[in-house]
C-alpha cells in the first residue's frame, strides 16, 4: 500500500510543512519513510520512500549537496523533507532548480518539527491502510469461498465478481474462446486479436496501448481498457479472467485484490469442470465405440442412453469424419481437443440447420473427430452440409487444414457402422488416393471411385488403363505434350472443342492438333460408348497414380 505525498501534506502533523520545489511530483506514492543519519544514505533507501533529513551528514560537502537531489530522483524516491536551521540555513538554489526539473518534491519542515513524530504519523497511516487491505482481502476471500460452498456454478460466480468489481467479466479458455461472461451476448460476436492479447496478458513490451485487443458486437476494447489475469494451476494454464473497463470511475477500488482472490477459486472451478468433461468424454467415446462396433441392437435403448450425454440421438442421421492434415501426432491430438474445447462445431451446425445443438454430438475417435447430426425433416440436406463443412474449415483455419468426409443418410441403428466406413472411404479416396489435404466431400458423390475401391485385383484395373490409354501415356512421357490432360479437359466438356480450348487457355487450332494426335494414337472420340470407356479409364488412371 502507498499514500501520495500530497495526501501526507493534508495530515494535521504536516500542516506547517512548505513545498518549495517539485510541485508537479506531489502525486508520487510513498510506501516507506527513511531518516538520513549517514552520508552514504543511498545504500539504505529504496524507491517510493520519503526521506527525512537535516542534511547534517553532508552539510560541509558541497559536491554531495550538488548531487543529492539528482541521486534521490535516480533511486526513484517520492521526495525529501528537510529540516533547516541548525546545520543548513536554507535550501541551495541549485537543489531547487534540480528538483523542479525532475518533478521531485522538496518539503521544508518547521524548526520545531520532530522527525520521529512525523515519520510515525506516516508509518501509522501506512500500517492502517495495510491492515484495512488485509481485512478487505480476507472479506473477499470469505465471500467467494462461501459462494463456492453453497454450490454456485461458474455463471453465478462470474456474475458475483462483476458485481463487486463494478465491471464486466469474461472468462476465456486457452484458445481465447469465451466460456463464461457476465454479459448477455452471442459468444460468436467475440473477436480477439491473439497477438495483441498475448502481449498484453503476458506483460510484454507493448507500444500500442490504443490497439483494439478484443471486440464484442463490434465494440472494440483497447489495451488500456482491459485488466487481464491468467488462470493457472501449478504450471498448467487454464485460461484468462478479463475485466472490461467500460466506466473507469465505477471500477471498485482494489480491483487487483478481488481478481487475485477470484483467480484462486476460478482455477478450482475450471479444473473441476475439465475433470468432469474428460470423464464425460471418456464415457461418450466408449458409448459411440460400442454403437459403431454393433454392440447395441435396440434402437430405443441407444436413444435413451444418449440422453445421458445431453444428446438427442434420432434418425435419420449423418456422420461427418473430420481429419486434420497436421503430421505430428501429439500436435494433431492437441488440435482436436482445442476444437472440442471450443464447442463451436455444435453451435455452427445448430445455426445452419436451425435446430438445438443437442441434435448433434462430436467426439474424438480413432485419431479423428466424429460428428453425428440428426437430419429429420431436412429438405435441403446436401446444401446445408456443404455450408457446415465450409464453415468448419473456415472457423478452424488457424489450426491447419481440415478434410471432411460425409456419410450417406442413416435410417436405422444397424446402418451406423457402414455409414462410418463410407465416410472413412471418402478420406481414403480424396485424401490418400487423390492427395487432397482439405476438402468437403460426400460418399454419395464418389461415383466410379466406389467401384474402383471394391475391385481387389489392381492388375485388372491397370490392364484396363493400359488398353485404353497406354499409347497416350507413353507418348506424353516421351514428348511432354500433355495429351492426357487434354483428354481430361475434353471429357469435362463432353467433347466440345471450343469450351475445352477456352478452359485450357490454348488456341483452338492447337487443340485440334492435339485431338488429331489422340486419334492417330488409336482413340475413338466420336463413338459414345468408346468415349465413355475412355472417360472411365482417365478417372481410373488418376485413382491409381495419385
What does this molecule look like?
The chain is built from 18 helices and 19 strands. Strand 6 (79-83), helix 3 and strand 7 (106-109) form a beta-alpha-beta unit. By secondary structure, it is of the alpha+beta class. The relative contact order is 0.05. Helix 15 (483-492) crosses helix 16 (497-504). The mean pLDDT is 83. The chain folds into four domains: 3-124, HprK N-terminal domain-like (Udp-n-acetylmuramoylalanyl-d-glutamate--2,6- Diaminopimelate Ligase, Chain: A, domain 1, 3-Layer(aba) Sandwich), CATH 3.40.1390; 152-270, Beta-Lactamase (2-Layer Sandwich), CATH 3.30.450.40; 293-447, 2-Layer Sandwich (Alpha-Beta Plaits); 455-545. The longest helix is centred in the middle third of the chain and has 38 residues, at 255-292. It has a five-stranded mixed beta sheet with strand order 2-7-6-5-4, with helices on both faces. It has a five-stranded mixed beta sheet with strand order 16-17-15-18-19, with helices on both faces. Strands 9-8-14-13 form a four-stranded antiparallel beta sheet, covered by helices on one side. The chain has helices at residues 5-9, 62-74, 93-102, 115-149, 154-165, 194-201, 255-292, 299-306, 329-342, 344-353, 381-395, 416-433, 448-454, 458-479, 483-492, 497-504, 508-520, 528-545; strands at residues 3-4, 18-21, 29-30, 32-35, 49-53, 79-83, 106-109, 168-172, 178-181, 190-192, 212-216, 219-222, 226-233, 236-244, 317-324, 360-364, 369-374, 402-406, 439-442.
